[in-house]
Amino acid sequence: MTVQAKICGINDETGMRTAVAGGAAFVGLVFYPPSPRSLDPDAAAALAAFVPDHVTLVGLFVDPDDGLIDDVLAKVTLDLIQLHGSESPERCQALRTRTGLPVMKAIKIGDAEDVETASTYEGSVDWLMFDAKAPKSLKNALPGGNALAFDWTLMAGQEWSVPWMLAGGLNPDNVVAAVEASGAAVVDVSSGVESAPGRKDPLRITAFLDALKNL
What we know:
Blueprint: E1 4-7, H1 13-22, E2 26-30, H2 41-48, E3 56-61, H3 66-73, E4 80-83, H4 89-99, E5 103-109, H5 112-116, E6 127-132, E7 164-166, H6 175-182, E8 186-189, E9 194-196, E10 199-200, H7 202-213
Parallel strand pairs: 1-2, 1-8, 2-3, 3-4, 4-5, 5-6, 6-7
Antiparallel strand pairs: 9-10
Helix pairs in contact: 1-7
């Protein structure tokens, strides 16, 4: 099985060049200021210049208003919008219509009931992402990128009408096991390829991508 990867939260040239050269099919830029990976539109545009046409450029937003989306799209040519907040199916559809871009909705998973909520988005999005739900006890938790994993077997055998990505706590050491347990064809990593929050490690990016090549 060929497994594709998304390297998310890239915020420097070295990280972007490493991800592209290593074979990432998707690269993600974060537009959420509380995140240590967040970029302004000008910085994002500079990094986007290193993304070839065959790599999907994803913009991650958390409950964005139309103004933020407009500001980013005025300077960055995104291929896919990732919504990682509490956006409703109606909001997802509205952004698809407004921007003309495909939309991916992140579903936060703690148990099997959370997986079932994905079906309410199927008609309103082009992609689904399944990420770990942060426990209430975790202080200063971000919407994603908390290095938390969930029970990957919850995804085994699941089918939706749109493609999906597996996220949450993945790293070079566990991504093969995650794929085998979940059946994921696309995986997403952010904190798992960092040396510190918001600092992408080229060696870890390469190790992550190489692990997938060996599947």
